[in-house]
Amino acid sequence: MLDKTDATAILTGMVTISRTFRKAAQRSRERSLAGTKYGFLRHLLEGDARLGELAHQLVVSAPVASRAVEALEAEALVERRTDPLDARAILISITEQGRAALAEGDSRIIRKFAAALDDWTPEEAERAVALLTVLNERLAEVLQPSETPADAESGTAPTNAPATTARTDTRTTDEDEISG
Fold it and tell me: Is 15 within 8 Å of 23 (Cβ atoms)?
């Protein structure tokens, strides 16, 4: 079992990485995608989505998601259209310009990231990817409704679980969320 000291060290490392990427995006003089805007475009590569789905996937509040989509729309990187299955709903779609901006941004980010880790071996990279995959899976559990020990043993969901998962936005400001 992981002790509190190790858990604190891991959390501190994750926060440091997050701040490093945020500062790099803020200091970048070149037009780049970052934060929520980048995440939305990555998600939209898989297909159109509703605003609520995007907010849920990136674990951001509805207002942050709305501002990010508005900013992407102003840059012609996404567009809104009526859902053909439900005329009351709006889908967000990535545009060709959005695909191009994402590809350009990915290329630039990957080059910088590879240069920063150029002394890593393929084995070290594989271990890092494996650990990050497990870490992301486990941290996704943090967003799930909590179970009581009896629920965990019986395999049943808690009866008092909320219908939706509450999320806490731990980033410093909404502007950090949509900056880019």
Answer: no
C-beta separation of 125 from 114 below 8 A? no
- Determine the Cα angle at 69 with ends 66 and 74, to 5°: 125
**Spatial CA neighbour of 21 closest among 6, 42, 40, 36:** 36
For residue 174 the two structure tokens come to 């909404």
The answer to whether the beta carbons of residues 22 and 35 sit under 8 Å apart is: yes
Q: Is 42 exposed, middle or buried (0-12, 13-18, 19+ CB in 10 A)?
A: middle
Helix (H, G, I), strand (E, B) or coil at 133: helix
Residue 56 buriedness (CB in 10 A; 0-12 / 13-18 / 19+): middle
Residues facing residue 49 across a β-bridge: 92
Classify 44 as helix, strand or coil: helix
Q: What is the pLDDT along the chain (180 residues), one digit of tens a residue?
A: 889 999 899 889 888 888 887 777 666 544 556 677 888 999 999 999 999 999 988 888 899 999 999 999 999 999 999 999 999 999 999 999 999 988 887 777 788 888 999 999 999 999 999 998 898 888 877 766 665 555 544 444 444 333 333 333 333 344 444 444
